């Protein structure tokens, strides 16, 4: 993981320096600014492979093309071997430069991994983002210039006009729980590069082009043989784990919740590792079942396991820090705010000792998780329509989408499940879970890698029909069957037990946070509410508390570091 930023259309070196300073936490091991006649690029490096300094931007011999890159290219060696001048390529930025010089804009479809790329030439700027948006890339245009960065806070340092909330994006977050539009952020005028696409900025105009389109979750699969499917799952996860483990020379860690996804991920990673991996679990109740199962998995797989207990006081200390780095809002829509806050707190402990961690994001989306949505699709549909009616902020695109995809007169559960899959695998994954994973890991200067979202795993899982994932109220069928075949009584029990989930596993903290928010806003109703124009967007006082702090940090203070964020960093 690294941080990238830049401006095209003018040099603006001072602006790039400001942006780079705002994202220095993403790359504390070296930084560099490259200035050309048509723009400037900034880069800060997180050392994953044991080298030092800043080895980017990569620049062509004639100095007409420059590349900055954030992420990991897992087929680096194969792509390097395909080039005639491979001896000159020592890192991924140089590989991307070589591929671009040979293939032009077609180079992006050849990459396997997670990436955000900026390619600057004398004629244009190109911004590209990986297939599902694991790595972030945000931008805005101003006076024939285009600014881009890994995080919004960098752009806010140089944005000259007023910083405003995008009410359409806020309305989407109020309905779904996250910004639904791939291209939007919570800030008016600041967009993000859509996953699987690249933007071309040329002669003051922006054009979006697609190099990858997420396939339907309902592909037909050529084989219905159960043994063949579980064997394929085993082999593809094994090869992916081996490939991931090769891409670091530092101690490697795992977010281990004790549920099926993270436990299976730990199984594959540990069995392919030459040394014990380090696992981490967060809890707020000594009687937590998830805590107990995480500990049992760690014991069986012989990982180095660390348990972290949190409480309401710690959660309150972290709220501003979380919001400052998260740069968006999670409301009680499809998901729950406490889950991403808990992930942030756990990341603060991992970052003290590690530069790399593996997470289970993508497993629910690919293999049919989220029991309550798939087991009660009609209730989910009703809830979306109800929230859209309550918010009713004039966002006709979202209202039309909900009426088309979740009509009140549709009682066919399979139809609704298809739409749920699309939401979960699309904006739910990119704009909620992956957004959270990137921001929280980068806040503490380490890289988080979602094993289930490796290209080979993702494409194979998307090729499976729904009956291999969900049957009635039975979800994650394939993962459960595989866990039961491992010959481990513990994994067989994990496969059949009801997973609590991070929000419910933090139920004590959630209740206490909600009580605190109620007290904070008890005297801020009606005309006394500082954000009364947004009253219909929020259901709970906890949502109002989060929005109030978000508004202060980003709108009132223009994304400057809150004083209490610095103090938390020193904990």
UniProtKB/TrEMBL annotation:
UniProt-annotated site: Important for beta-aspartyl-AMP intermediate formation, residues: 361
Q: Where is the active site?
A: 2
Instruction: Give me the reactions it catalyses.
Output: L-aspartate + L-glutamine + ATP + H2O = L-asparagine + L-glutamate + AMP + diphosphate + H(+)
Write out the GO biological process terms.
asparagine biosynthetic process
Report if keyword Ligase is assigned. yes
Q: Give UniProt keywords alphabetically.
A: Amino-acid biosynthesis, Asparagine biosynthesis, ATP-binding, Glutamine amidotransferase, Ligase, Nucleotide-binding
Q: Which residues form the Glutamine amidotransferase type-2 domain?
A: 2-204
The protein's matches in SUPFAM superfamilies, at most eight in alphabetical order, are given as:
Adenine nucleotide alpha hydrolases-like (SSF52402), N-terminal nucleophile aminohydrolases (Ntn hydrolases) (SSF56235)
Named in its record, the pathway it takes part in is: Amino-acid biosynthesis; L-asparagine biosynthesis; L-asparagine from L-aspartate (L-Gln route): step 1/1
Protein biosynthesis is among the record's keywords = no
Query: What terms describe the molecular function in GO for this protein?
Result: asparagine synthase (glutamine-hydrolyzing) activity; ATP binding
Pfam families given for it? Asn_synthase, GATase_7
Do you know which InterPro entries this protein is assigned to?
Answer: Asn_synth_AEB, Asn_synthase, ASN_synthetase/amidase, AsnB_N, GATase_2_dom, Ntn_hydrolases_N, Rossmann-like_a/b/a_fold
What are the EC numbers?
6.3.5.4
Report the family membership.
Belongs to the asparagine synthetase family.
Q: What is this protein called?
A: asparagine synthase (glutamine-hydrolyzing)
What species is this protein from?
Candidatus Acididesulfobacter diazotrophicus
């Amino acid at each position: 993981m690294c941080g990238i930023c830049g401006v095209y259309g003018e040099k603006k070196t001072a602006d790039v320096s400001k942006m780079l300073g705002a994202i220095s936490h993403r790359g504390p091991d070296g930084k560099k600014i490259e200035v050309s006649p048509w723009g400037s690029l900034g880069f800060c490096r997180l050392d994953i492979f044991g080298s030092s300094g800043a080895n980017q931007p990569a620049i062509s011999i004639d100095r007409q093309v420059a590349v900055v890159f954030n992420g990991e290219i897992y087929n680096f060696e194969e792509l390097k071997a395909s080039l005639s001048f491979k001896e000159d390529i020592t890192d991924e930025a140089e590989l991307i430069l070589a591929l671009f010089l040979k293939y032009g804009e077609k180079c992006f479809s050849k990459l396997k991994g997670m990436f955000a790329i900026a390619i600057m030439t004398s004629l244009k700027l190109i911004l590209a983002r990986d297939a599902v948006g694991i790595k972030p890339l945000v931008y805005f245009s101003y006076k024939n210039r285009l600014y881009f960065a890994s995080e919004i806070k960098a752009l806010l340092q140089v944005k000259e006009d007023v910083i405003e909330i995008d009410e359409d994006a806020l309305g989407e977050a109020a309905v779904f729980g996250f910004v639904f539009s791939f291209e939007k952020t919570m800030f008016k005028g600041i967009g993000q590069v859509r996953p699987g696409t690249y933007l071309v900025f040329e002669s003051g105009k922006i054009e979006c082009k697609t190099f990858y389109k997420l396939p339907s979750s309902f592909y037909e699969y050529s084989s219905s043989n159960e043994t063949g499917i579980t064997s394929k799952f085993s082999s593809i996860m094994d090869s992916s784990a081996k490939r991931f483990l090769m891409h670091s020379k530092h101690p490697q860690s795992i977010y281990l919740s004790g549920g099926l996804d993270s436990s299976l991920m730990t199984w594959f990673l540990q069995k392919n590792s030459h040394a014990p991996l380090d696992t981490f679990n967060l809890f707020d109740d000594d009687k937590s079942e998830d805590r107990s199962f995480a500990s049992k998995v760690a014991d069986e797989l012989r990982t180095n396991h660390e348990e972290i207990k949190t409480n309401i006081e710690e959660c309150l200390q972290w709220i501003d820090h979380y919001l400052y780095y998260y740069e968006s809002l999670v409301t009680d829509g499809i998901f729950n705010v406490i889950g991403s806050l808990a992930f942030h707190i756990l990341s603060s402990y991992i970052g003290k000792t590690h530069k790399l961690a593996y997470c289970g994001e993508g497993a629910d989306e690919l293999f049919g998780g989220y029991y309550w949505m798939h087991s009660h699709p009609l209730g989910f549909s009703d809830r979306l329509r109800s929230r859209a009616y309550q918010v009713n902020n004039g966002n006709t695109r979202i209202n039309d989408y909900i009426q088309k995809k979740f009509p009140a007169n549709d009682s066919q559960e399979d139809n609704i499940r298809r739409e749920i899959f699309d939401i979960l695998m699309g904006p739910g994954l990119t704009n909620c879970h992956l957004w959270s994973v990137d921001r929280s890991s980068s806040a503490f200067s380490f890289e988080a890698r979602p094993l289930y979202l490796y290209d080979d795993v993702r494409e194979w899982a998307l090729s499976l029909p729904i009956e291999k994932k969900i049957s009635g109220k039975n979800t994650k069928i394939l993962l459960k069957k595989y866990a039961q075949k491992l010959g481990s009584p513990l994994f067989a029990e994990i496969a059949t037990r009801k997973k609590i989930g991070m929000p419910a596993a933090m139920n004590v903290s959630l209740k206490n946070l909600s009580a605190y928010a109620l007290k904070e806003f008890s005297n801020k109703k009606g005309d006394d509410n500082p954000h009364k124009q947004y009253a219909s967007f929020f259901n709970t006082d906890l949502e109002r508390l989060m929005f109030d702090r978000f508004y202060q940090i980003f709108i009132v203070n223009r994304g400057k570091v809150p004083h209490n964020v610095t103090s938390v960093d020193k904990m």
